[in-house]
């Protein structure tokens, strides 16, 4: 398995060190896998409708305030 080096903010690193029982590489691997699956999944019509509705609502608010 290839290795990857990550940089995290010092504050986060200090907090992570408090949880020695956690295998942080497993947490990162799971997060990477989930993100790849999200990116591979096409957007559904329902999601498009929801996003379109949100955009229209914000545009209406903007023009109503002029």
Provide a descriptive summary of the structure in words.
The structure is a single chain. The protein is mainly alpha-helical and 66 residues long. It has a domain at 22-64. Helix content is 67%, strand content 0%. It is built from three helices and no strands. It has helices spanning 10-16, 24-40, 45-64. The longest helix is centred in the C-terminal third of the chain and has 20 residues, at 45-64. The radius of gyration is 20 Å and the shape is elongated. The termini are far apart.
Strand and helix map with partners:
Layout: H1 10-16, H2 24-40, H3 45-64
In short:
The chain is an all-alpha fold and 66 residues long.
Structural category: mainly alpha
Oligomer: single chain
State the total count of DSSP E strands: 0
Which regions are unreliable across 5 or more consecutive residues at pLDDT < 50?
none
Computed CA radius of gyration, to the nearest angstrom:
20 Å
Question: Helicity level, as a percent range?
Answer: 55-70%
Which terms would index this structure?
mainly alpha, 67% helix
């Amino acid at each position: 398995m290839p290795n990857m080096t990550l940089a995290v903010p010092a504050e986060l690193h200090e907090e992570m060190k408090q949880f020695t029982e956690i295998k942080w590489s497993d947490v990162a691997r799971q997060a990477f896998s989930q993100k790849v699956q999200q990116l591979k999944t096409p957007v559904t019509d329902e999601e498009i409708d929801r996003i379109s509705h949100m955009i229209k609502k914000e545009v209406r608010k903007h023009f109503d305030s002029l």
